[in-house]
Amino acid sequence: MTSHHSVEQEWERRVAALWERLDDHEPADFRAAVAALAAERAEDDPAALFELGAAHDSTGLPAEAVRLYERALDQGLAGLRRRRAVVQLASSLRNLGRPDRSVELLTAERDIPADRLDADELALSGAVDAFLALALADTGRDREAAALALGALAPLLPRYNRSLAHYARALLTAPDGS
User: Fold this and answer.
1) What is the pTM of this model?
2) To the nearest whole number, what is the mean pLDDT of the chain?
3) In terms of DSSP H, where are the helices of 96-160?
4) Average pLDDT of the residues in 163-177
5) Domain Tetratrico peptide repeat group spans what residues (predicted)?
């Protein structure tokens, strides 16, 4: 008898293996392969909806991806997939000409206290900042975008960390960032 846990792990393994071969598939074939895996789950399974959304997103169909990400989140998508869905949803919305909504989603995501995120979710904080910077730039908030991007970059530099972090903050209070 196979336990639910091992069935779940096997499904996750097959999903990961399929994503590793994304570039080996034509877009429609890749979406069909993800759809076949998703069909093994309940119709409203949030993980399956997320994977379908990501497949549409990664193959150039952001409008369909948005619908699927929103359904996955509405169905209670949790953990790392939830954070990925927010980033990917926001990116797709930005690409579809809705950067204001992207800013809203990513600002809310950025405001989640670190102690409420696990290590994998926390590891995506840089992605949240990067996509928020893009959305801010698209809404004409260039100084905020640059400050966010430079602030995220500062800790990664071998030198000049303090200086860059200071200059990033100063962008928000400098002449046209006041």
Assistant:
1) 0.89
2) 94
3) 99-110, 119-122, 125-138, 142-153
4) 81
5) 46-171
